[in-house]
Amino acid sequence: MPKIKTNRGAAKRFKKTANGFKHKQSFRSHILTKKSTKRKRQLRGMKQVHDADKALVARMLPNL
């Protein structure tokens, strides 16, 4: 039986928490001048993975 491999791209994007996985929000890397201060502020920080996506992320990260 072969070893189960972790998806390395997903491992760099998601962190395991007690309640699931957290990830950085998108739309914060470039072209920020046209985005409002409020929108940029709300995109800061980490967010939880939605319930609908938890199983997919868990399958990509079996060893985390």
Automatic annotation (TrEMBL):
<dbReference type="InterPro" id="IPR001706">
    <property type="entry name" value="Ribosomal_bL35"/>
</dbReference>
<dbReference type="GO" id="GO:0003735">
    <property type="term" value="F:structural constituent of ribosome"/>
</dbReference>
<dbReference type="InterPro" id="IPR021137">
    <property type="entry name" value="Ribosomal_bL35-like"/>
</dbReference>
<keyword id="KW-0689">Ribosomal protein</keyword>
<dbReference type="GO" id="GO:0022625">
    <property type="term" value="C:cytosolic large ribosomal subunit"/>
</dbReference>
<dbReference type="Pfam" id="PF01632">
    <property type="entry name" value="Ribosomal_L35p"/>
</dbReference>
<protein>
    <recommendedName>
        <fullName>Large ribosomal subunit protein bL35</fullName>
    </recommendedName>
</protein>
<dbReference type="GO" id="GO:0006412">
    <property type="term" value="P:translation"/>
</dbReference>
<dbReference type="InterPro" id="IPR018265">
    <property type="entry name" value="Ribosomal_bL35_CS"/>
</dbReference>
<comment type="similarity">
    <text>Belongs to the bacterial ribosomal protein bL35 family.</text>
</comment>
<keyword id="KW-0687">Ribonucleoprotein</keyword>
<dbReference type="InterPro" id="IPR037229">
    <property type="entry name" value="Ribosomal_bL35_sf"/>
</dbReference>
